C-alpha cells in the first residue's frame, strides 16, 4: 500500500507511504485520490491531513516511473491537484524532511500547510533542465513572494521551512510544529475545520511593484549564469506569466503556459543530457554482479601513506566527513610539509568564510601522523599515495600485508600501474583495490574505483559506500593502462597534436573545444597539469608501442623546458604569478618549423572539425573500453568525463553526445577523417562495438 487512510477525532489522515521518499508514483497518487474521495464522502470527517511516512513528506515524482506510461496514468499529478482545488473540506498538508518538486506542488494545492522545523523545501526541476510542471511557478510566488520564489525556482536548491516561515507576509506555512507533527497537524485541522471560504493558493493576489524591469533583470542574470541551459530563463518566463495572469485574474492561463514550457523543454537536448546525467550518477553506484545488499565492512579509521599532493587532498576528504585519519610518511619533514599544506587549505577556506574556525579545529583534531607502520595497524582502510614506481609500491604493500589488521582494505591511488600486480605483493589480493582520486583530491568529484581480478565484492561495495560518505562520484573501472579516463584522454591528446601539425595553433584548438563547452582545452590543460607528465608517458609508449604515431610538437615543447604554468611557460606564455594564458609566438614558430620539417602545407581547420576530431577520439576509445568490459556501461564513461574531465554537462558526456549525433553519423565522420593524409588512418578505424551499434542503428546508452 503506498498511501494509507485512517480517521482520528473527525480528521481523515492520509499517509503517503512509498519509500524511500514517498515519490508520487501511480499507486501513491491513486491512494491519495481515493483517500480524499472517501474523506469527502464521510459525514463524520470534518477535515483532511495529508502526511508522509518515513523520512520525507514527498521528494516529488517517482523517478522509477520516469518515461513509463505509469507516470501519466490517471490520476496524474495535475488531476490530483485539481481534486484538491475542488475539495469541499479543508485539506492540510503536514510536511517534514523533504518537500520537493511535485511533493511541494501537491502541498501548495492543499488549503493549509504546517511544517516540521528543518524541512527542506525545493522546486529542483531546473536541475534536470525543466521548469516545475504542476503549478510550482504559479503557486509558490503567491505564498512567498515573487523574488524568493524565483530564486528558489531558478536555483533549485532547498530552503529550510523555518526560514520560509519567517518571511514577512508569507502564506506558505500557517504553522511550524515543534514535536509531534501529526498531532500538531490534527489539532490545527480541528481548529480550522469549520472556517469558510476554504483558502486556495490559486486565489491569492500576486503583484510585483516593478515587474517588467525586475523580470528583464532576472532573465539577463540567469542567461549570464547558465548560457547553455534554456530552463532557467523559462523559469523566469513562467513566474512573469504568473504575475501577468494574476492581473487579469486568470490562474489557469498561467498553468497552461507553464505546462507548455515544461513540455517544450522536455524535448531539448540539454534536458535529455541533464536527465541522463541524473540517472547515470545513480547507476554508477550499481555494479552488475555486486548485489545492493552486499554486507559492507565498517570503516571507522583510515590510514593514508604519503603526504604529498594526493595524500593531503585524500586525507582532507575523510576529515571533512568526520573520519579519523593517520598519515604515514618516510621522514618528519615530509609529514610537516604535508600537514602544513592541509592547514593552509583549511585556513584559506576559513578566510573565505566557507569553513568555521571551530569546524576546522575539529577536523584537524581527527588527524594524526606516524613514521612507523605500526601506527596503521588498526586502520580499516589504508590508501597508498606514494611515488608512482612499482618498486616503491611493492615495498609499501609487502609491509602493509604484514602490519594491516585482517579485513582491512588496502587501496592504491596509482594512476598508471597495474593494480593486479600491486595486489600480488600481498597474501590478501581480495582486499586490494584501486582508489584513483583526481587532483586536487579534496575538490574533484570523481573517484575511479579500480577493480582488480581478485578484489572481493564486499570490498567494492564498501569502497562505493565510503565514496558516498566523502561525497565523491565513484565509477568502477577494470584494470588497464590509464583506467577509463586517462586511457581515453591519451587518444584525445594525440589527436590534438595532429591538429597542430596540420595548421591549428594551440589557441584555436582550445577555443573551439571550450566553445563546445569543455571547461578547458587540451593545451591549457597541459599547461596546468604539467606537460612533462605526458612527456614521461610518451617516452614509455615509444618503447612499448613503436608503431603508435604521436605528434612530436609536445616533445619539442618540453625540450624547450616549457612544462607549463609551473615553469612560467608552456603552450602559452604566462606573466609572473599569473594564470592567464598568452598566445606564444615562440610556440607558434616551433610548430610552424615542425610542419615544414614534415613537409605539411598548413590548412585552415574549422572549429567543427576540431571539436569532432577531439570528441570522437574519446568516443572511439570509450567503445573499446566498453567492449573489453573495463567499464560496465556507457553511462559510467559519461560520469567519468562529466565529473573528472570538464566535459560539458549540457551534452551529457561523450557517449550521450555520440548518441545524440547518431552513431551512424559518428562512423561516417570518422571515415572521412581517416582519408586525411596527415592524420592516422588506423586511429580512425571504428572500434568493433561502435561499428556494430552504428550498423544496427543502436546507441551506446539504451
Ligand atoms: P607526490 O610526490 O606529491 O607525493 C608522494 C609522497 O609520498 C611524498 O610526500 C613522499 O615523501 C611519499 N613517499 C614516497 N615513498 C614513500 C614510502 N615508501 N612511504 C611513505 N611515504 C612515501 O606524489 P603525488 O602526486 O601525490 O602522487 C602520489 C600517487 O598518486 C602516485 O601513485 C600518482 O600516480 C597518483 N596520482 C597522482 C595524481 C596527481 O595529479 N598528482 C592524480 C592521481 C593519482
Automatic annotation (TrEMBL):
Q: Predominant location of this chain?
A: other
Source domain of life: Bacteria
Q: Which residue range or ranges hold the 3-hydroxyacyl-CoA dehydrogenase C-terminal domain?
A: 482-574, 610-698
A molecular function annotated in GO for this UniProt entry is: NAD+ binding
Q: Which residues form the 3-hydroxyacyl-CoA dehydrogenase NAD binding domain?
A: 301-477
Instruction: Choose any GO biological process term that the UniProt entry carries and state it.
Output: fatty acid beta-oxidation
The cross-references to InterPro entries, in alphabetical order and at most eight, read: 3-OHacyl-CoA_DH_NAD-bd, 3HC_DH_C, 6-PGluconate_DH-like_C_sf, ClpP/crotonase-like_dom_sf, Enoyl-CoA_hyd/isom_CS, Enoyl-CoA_hydra/iso, NAD(P)-bd_dom_sf
Homology family: In the N-terminal section; belongs to the enoyl-CoA hydratase/isomerase family. Belongs to the enoyl-CoA hydratase/isomerase family.
- Under what name is this protein listed? 3-hydroxyacyl-CoA dehydrogenase
Instruction: Say which species the protein is native to.
Output: Rubrivivax albus
Amino acid at each position: 500500500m503506498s498511501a494509507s487512510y485512517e480517521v482520528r477525532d473527525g480528521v481523515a489522515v492520509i499517509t503517503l507511504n512509498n519509500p524511500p521518499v514517498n515519490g508520487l508514483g501511480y499507486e501513491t497518487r491513486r491512494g491519495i485520490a481515493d483517500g480524499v474521495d472517501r474523506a469527502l464522502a464521510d459525514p463524520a470527517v470534518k477535515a483532511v491531513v495529508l502526511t508522509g511516512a518515513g523520512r520525507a513528506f514527498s521528494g516529488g515524482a517517482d523517478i522509477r516511473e520516469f518515461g513509463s506510461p505509469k507516470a501519466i496514468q490517471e490520476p496524474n499529478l495535475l488531476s490530483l491537484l485539481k481534486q484538491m482545488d475542488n475539495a469541499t473540506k479543508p485539506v492540510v498538508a503536514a510536511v517534514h524532511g523533504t518537500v520537493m518538486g511535485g511533493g511541494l506542488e501537491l502541498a501548495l494545492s492543499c488549503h493549509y500547510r504546517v511544517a516540521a522545523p528543518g524541512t527542506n523545501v525545493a522546486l529542483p526541476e531546473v536541475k534536470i533542465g525543466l521548469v516545475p510542471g504542476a503549478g510550482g511557478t504559479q503557486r509558490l510566488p503567491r505564498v512567498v513572494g515573487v523574488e524568493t520564489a524565483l530564486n528558489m525556482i531558478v536555483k533549485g536548491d532547498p530552503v529550510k521551512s523555518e526560514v520560509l516561515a519567517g518571511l514577512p507576509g508569507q502564506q506558505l506555512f500557517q504553522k511550524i510544529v515543534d514535536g509531534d507533527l501529526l498531532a500538531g497537524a490534527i489539532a490545527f485541522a480541528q481548529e480550522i475545520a469549520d472556517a469558510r471560504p476554504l483558502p486556495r493558493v490559486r486565489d491569492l493576489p500576486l503583484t510585483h511593484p516593478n515587474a517588467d524591469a525586475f523580470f528583464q533583470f532576472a532573465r539577463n542574470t540567469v542567461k549570464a549564469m547558465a548560457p547553455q541551459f534554456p530552463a532557467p530563463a523559462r523559469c523566469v518566463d513562467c513566474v512573469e506569466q504568473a504575475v501577468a495572469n494574476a492581473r487579469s485574474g486568470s490562474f489557469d492561463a498561467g498553468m497552461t503556459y507553464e505546462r507548455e514550457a515544461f513540455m517544450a523543454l522536455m524535448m531539448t537536448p540539454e534536458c535529455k543530457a541533464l536527465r541522463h546525467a541524473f540517472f547515470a550518477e545513480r547507476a554508477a553506484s550499481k555494479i552488475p554482479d555486486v548485489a545492493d545488499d552486499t554486507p559492507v565492512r565498517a570503516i571507522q579509521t583510515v590510514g593514508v601513506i604519503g603526504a604529498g599532493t594526493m595524500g593531503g587532498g585524500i586525507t582532507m576528504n575523510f576529515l571533512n566527513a568526520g573520519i579519523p585519519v593517520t598519515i604515514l610518511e618516510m621522514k618528519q619533514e615530509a609529514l610537516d610539509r604535508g600537514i602544513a599544506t592541509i592547514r593552509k587549505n583549511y585556513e584559506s577556506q576559513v578566510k573565505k568564510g566557507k569553513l568555521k574556525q571551530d569546524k576546522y579545529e575539529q577536523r584537524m583534531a581527527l588527524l594524526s601522523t606516524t613514521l612507523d607502520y605500526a601506527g596503521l595497524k588498526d586502520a580499516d582502510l589504508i590508501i597508498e599515495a606514494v611515488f608512482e614506481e612499482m618498486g616503491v609500491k611493492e615495498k609499501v604493500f609487502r609491509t602493509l600485508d604484514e602490519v594491516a589488521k585482517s579485513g582491512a582494505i588496502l587501496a592504491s591511488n596509482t594512476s598508471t600501474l597495474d593494480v593486479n600486480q600491486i595486489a600480488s605483493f600481498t597474501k590478501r589480493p581480495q582486499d586490494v583495490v584501486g582508489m584513483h582520486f583526481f587532483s586536487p583530491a579534496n575538490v574533484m568529484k570523481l573517484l575511479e574505483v579500480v577493480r582488480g581480478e581478485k578484489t572481493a565484492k564486499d570490498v567494492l561495495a564498501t569502497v562505493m559506500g565510503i565514496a558516498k560518505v566523502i561525497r565523491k562520484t565513484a565509477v568502477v573501472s577494470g584494470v588497464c593502462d590509464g583506467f577509463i579516463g586517462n586511457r581515453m584522454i591519451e587518444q584525445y591528446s594525440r589527436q590534438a597534436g595532429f591538429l597542430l601539425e596540420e595548421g591549428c595553433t594551440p589557441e584555436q584548438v582550445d577555443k573551439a573545444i571550450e566553445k563546445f563547452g569543455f571547461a578547458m582545452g587540451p593545451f591549457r590543460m597541459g599547461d596546468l597539469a604539467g606537460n612533462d607528465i605526458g612527456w614521461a608517458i610518451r617516452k614509455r609508449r615509444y618503447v612499448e608501442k613503436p608503431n603508435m604515431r604521436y605528434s612530436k610538437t609536445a616533445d619539442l615543447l618540453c625540450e624547450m623546458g616549457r612544462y607549463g604554468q609551473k615553469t612560467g611557460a608552456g603552450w602559452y606564455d604566462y606573466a609572473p604569478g599569473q594564470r592567464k594564458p598568452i598566445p606564444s609566438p615562440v610556440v607558434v614558430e616551433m610548430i610552424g618549423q615542425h610542419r615544414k620539417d614534415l613537409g605539411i602545407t598548413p590548412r585552415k581547420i574549422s572549429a567543427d572539425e576540431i571539436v569532432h576530431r577531439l570528441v570522437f577520439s574519446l568516443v572511439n576509445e570509450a567503445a573499446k573500453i566498453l567492449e573489453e568490459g573495463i567499464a560496465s556501461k556507457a553511462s559510467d564513461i559519461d560520469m567519468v568525463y562529466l565529473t573528472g574531465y570538464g566535459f560539458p554537462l549540457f551534452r551529457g558526456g561523450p557517449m550521450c553526445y555520440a548518441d545524440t549525433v547518431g552513431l551512424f553519423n559518428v562512423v561516417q565522420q570518422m571515415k572521412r577523417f581517416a582519408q586525411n593524409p596527415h592524420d592516422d588512418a588506423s586511429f580512425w578505424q571504428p572500434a568493433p562495438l561502435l561499428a556494430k551499434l552504428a550498423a544496427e542503428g543502436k546507441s551506446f546508452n539504451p
